Amino acid sequence: MRDLLLQSSGLAAIVLALIHGVLGETKVFARASIEPARLRTLIRLVWQAGTVAWIGGGVLLLVAPRLESSLARHWIVATLAIVFGFAALANAFAMRGRHFGWVGMGAVVALAVAGY
Predict the structure, then answer these.
(1) Is 0.85 topped by the overall pTM?
(2) Which of 20, 45, 61, 103 could be a cystine partner for 10, CB 3.0 to 4.6 Å?
(3) CB-based contact 49:90 (threshold 8 Å)
């Protein structure tokens, strides 16, 4: 059961990351006017770097049960709980709770900790 919770956390992290990337491109940057153009490109790439990092974290959560090291499982869960927990708090604060992202990121944390 613990492994299933941890893998669910990883899958949720990947889905949230993909939603983050798509919404960034279709909703945020489609409307944003950022000058100069190279700064727009930089901000867009930094946004997507977060997407890629969250996908990487999701992959680690997915494979953690297959690793034969409880120490690796511990550090994967601890590190990603902090990363997604901070992102959830920042999202809730910045959007005053009116954005679904903090709930999804909080669910990733809860599933990961429950699967630890």
Answers:
(1) yes
(2) 61
(3) no
